[in-house]
Amino acid sequence: MAKVIFKQYLWLIDKLSQRPMKFEEICSSYERSTLFEPRHPLRVRTLYNWREKINDLFGIDIVCDNHNFYRIEHRERLNDNSPARWIIQTMAVNEMVADKAELRPRILLEKIPSGKTFLMPILEAMKQGRTINFVYRKFGHTTDEEPIEMQPFCVKVSQRRWYVLGNVLSEHARKNVKVHPLNARYGVLKIYALDRIQSLDITENSWVYPEDFSADDFFNRLYGVYIAPDCPIEQVKLRISAAQRDYVRSLPMHITQAELETTDEYSVFGFYLPPSIDFIGALLAMGSNCEVLEPQSLRDYMAKEAAAMKALYGDH
């Protein structure tokens, strides 16, 4: 029964994410769905209970306006990059696979192993307003760093890895860290990959999440997760071949992406971002389909990388 009820929540979110609906429309649509049971028609009280539970589970507020239309308030919480959208889509796929066992071998999802062990306690610490204390070992190192205490601000997935961003409180972790002026009021913000954490505990130390901090705004200034105060935001222009540009159009590389010029052979895309190592990796992945036009420093760097690769492969 609980499984059926959960499907009803997903069904209602899906319907109202398309457009606002009056109660009669919702009932009519529900009666045509595979979830409907004649013995349990949809009533106003039932719909109210669904709305309350959806708000508890997903943080999605369904309201009834002055014209008796039910609608999702703050629809931006369901945009493509929102945690709520990701959770709902993941759960919807899980429900579909559970119902249709024959589809399981045909639905392939990317594994994110770093989220298995430490993601849940970090989320619990965020919810409780507690700090975390963890032991970290960088790739290529054979020993662990000293334990690090952190106020966890947010978590993020990038390149199939989970990361936690927060204000580090341990003095040894704060040493020699250049703090970006825009983030100075939040302390010393650093990011750590969960797959390099060796152990983690939630402490009894409480803290208050700053209301004016926006995780979206923080990462919108970056590409990926690389935080480098010495890598300033610059205007970047790329010439992308006609063979590659539709991929860039359909899955934008950054929130600032704009198509500045279009020809039969190529398009020029502009960005405002710090050209960090994460961004350079994405450019290298496009090979000869991508040419850096600006800034000159990035163009020079790419030329050096191309020369190094040519030397590596020679004439082969």
Quickly list its features.
316 residues; alpha+beta; Arc Repressor Mutant, subunit A; Alpha-Beta Plaits; four-stranded antiparallel sheet; 10 helices; 12 strands
Question: What does this molecule look like?
Answer:
This protein has 316 residues and is α+β, with helices and mostly antiparallel strands. It has three domains: 2-101, Arc Repressor Mutant, subunit A (Orthogonal Bundle); 113-220, no CATH class; 234-313, Alpha-Beta Plaits (2-Layer Sandwich), CATH 3.30.70. It is 36% helix and 25% strand. Strand 2 (61-64) and strand 3 form a beta hairpin. Helix 1 (2-18) crosses helix 3 (44-58). The longest helix has 18 residues, at 296-313. The mean pLDDT is 86.
Total count of helical runs of at least 4 residues: 10
Point out poorly predicted stretches: none
User: On the 0-100 scale, what is the average pLDDT?
Assistant: 86
Shape assignment: globular
Distance between the termini: 63 Å
Strand order, sheet with most strands: 7-6-5-4-8
Main sheet record:
5 strands, antiparallel
- Helix proportion range: 25-40%
Number of domains: 3
Q: How many strands appear in the DSSP assignment? A: 12
Strand content: 15-25%
Any idea what the radius of gyration is? 24 Å
SSE string: HEHHEEHHEEEHEEHEHEEHEH
The secondary structure category is alpha+beta
